[in-house]
Specification:
The chain is an alpha/beta fold and about 425 residues long. It has helices at about 10-15, 50-60, 75-85, 110-115, 120-125, 145-155, 215-230, 235-245, 255-260, 275-285, 395-400; strands spanning about 15-20, 40-45, 45-50, 65-70, 95-100, 130-135, 140, 160-165, 175-180, 185-190, 205-215, 250-255, 270, 315, 325, 330, 335-340, 340-345, 345, 350-355, 360, 365, 370, 375, 380, 385, 390-395, 405, 415. The chain contains eleven helices and 29 strands. The longest helix is centred in the middle third of the chain and has 12 residues, at about 215-230. About 50% of the residues are buried.
């Protein structure tokens, strides 16, 4: 597994320390995060969500990275240790796994800013001039080197990446308003407002923060110390630090369209997969003939743990009878489709689907086993589930709810091992 080469000037990247905030539970993902942190949720057949932020760093030339973990982090830590140990430590490249350690008093991380504040020694140790703060739970491809270049050129103390989103969705994000002088300065910022400010001339759109920030290191260290001493603060970037910096005129904006990798005619692709419906939709985007998120770009690969698994296999070859086939689907390594039909679905690694089964518009996470005659439609089946012969789900939402399955507002049925009387496993 090798990172993509970079031909851009690398001075800002070499002097940048990236802190990936990966300690959140992600409550809106429901049962998907009962046993794992949100950044460790599987995605796209063979990845985990955190792989996008880390791959963006490595592809952009940022090789000093700390991942701050907290909530149910074991599977995430395992993934980072096994999948991200390829950087050259002899050249000073690394991904540090940083569990919450109660470094200040006896408290765990009180907020995103507090998580960074408790680990400022990592910034000092890296002798960083700039600090890139990232959420570890978003799906997108971004060249952080372009954002860093914009930050340096603007002379800003803080730069915030943004994307315009439908206004009716903007209450889930931090919302920006820009100064009218065209300088790119952020004039106002509100975290998850009930009535998001619209874009000028576009009343149906709003400008949302992506949770990607560049700070001058000296300023960040000073602001974290100030915030830590403020007993009225919730010690959060969105609620506390950024509004205070915006009020002082220190924050500039970076338009994600400038740094998005593989922008399509539909615009730059960025997804906060914060709900089960959003997670399902982002995965299902990938089975389209021309998906907006390009996972086949050799110049900007999404890196991950590469397990040694055999190729996917489809048996048998009996037209009109037993025939294993997958149509408009992603099928990962180690899968066996035996006399079954898979349509518009994603089979993650080591999924087995047995004879007579039909899987449609569904996500089967790693190591799922489907017995004979299983019928699934618009389902997410969590890791390690064993579905018995004749099992059905997704055909009748009311019946699924009565059986104890999780049915989303969008009508997607989520099944975990515990829901079908099987013991769950870490991850």
């Amino acid at each position: 597994m090798q990172p993509a080469p970079s031909s851009r000037p690398d001075e800002p990247c070499r002097r940048t320390y990236a802190m990936v905030l990966a300690g959140g539970r992600g409550k809106r993902l429901g049962p998907l995060t009962d046993r794992r942190a949100k950044p460790a949720v599987p995605f796209a057949g063979k990845l985990e969500i955190i792989d996008f932020a880390l791959s963006n760093c490595v592809n952009a030339g940022i090789r000093h990275i700390g991942v701050l973990t907290q909530y149910k982090a074991q599977s995430l830590i395992r993934h980072l240790e096994r999948g991200w140990g390829f950087l050259a430590a002899t050249l000073g490249e690394y991904v540090d796994v940083v569990p919450a350690q109660q470094q200040v008093g006896e408290a765990w991380y009180a907020g995103t800013a507090d998580a960074v504040a408790q680990n400022v020694e990592l910034i000092r140790e890296a002798d960083a001039r700039w600090v890139l703060v990232l959420a570890g739970d978003h799906v997108y491809k971004m060249d952080y080197a372009v954002m860093l270049a914009d930050h340096v050129a603007s002379g800003a103390a803080v730069t915030m990446a943004c994307i315009d989103v439908p206004r009716h969705e903007a209450s889930a994000f931090g919302v920006l308003q820009l100064a009218e002088d065209g300088s790119g300065r952020v004039a106002a910022f509100a975290e998850k407002p009930s009535d998001p400010a619209p874009l000028p001339g576009r009343p149906d759109r709003a400008l949302a923060s992506m949770g990607v920030y560049v700070f001058d290191a000296d300023l960040l260290l000073a602001e974290l110390a100030r915030d830590a001493a403020d007993r009225t603060s919730s010690h959060d970037f969105g609620h506390d630090l950024l509004p205070a910096l915006v009020a002082r005129g220190l924050v500039h904006v970076h338009d994600f369209a400038r740094s998005c990798v593989n922008t399509t005619p539909q615009g730059p692709y960025w997804r906060d997969v914060g709900t089960v419906d959003a997670y399902y939709a982002a995965n299902m985007d990938l089975v389209q003939v021309q998906p907006q998120l390009n996972l086949y770009d050799d110049d900007w690969p999404i890196l991950s743990q590469q397990r040694q698994l055999p190729p996917a296999k489809f048996v048998f070859d009996e037209l009109g009878g037993r025939c294993g086939q997958a149509l408009q689907s992603l099928v990962a390594s180690g899968c066996i489709v035996s006399g079954a039909l898979v349509r518009r679905s994603i089979l993650f690694s080591k999924v087995h689907v047995d004879e007579g089964s039909a899987v449609e518009d569904s996500l089967l996470l790693p190591n799922v086993r489907c017995g004979r005659g299983v019928r699934l439609r618009r389902c997410i089946v969590d890791k390690h589930c064993r579905l018995p012969d004749g099992f059905t789900a997704g055909l009748d939402p009311d019946s699924d709810r009565a059986r104890g399955f999780f049915v989303t507002p969008g009508g997607v049925t989520l099944i975990t091992p515990e829901m079908i009387g099987q013991a769950g496993r870490v991850g």
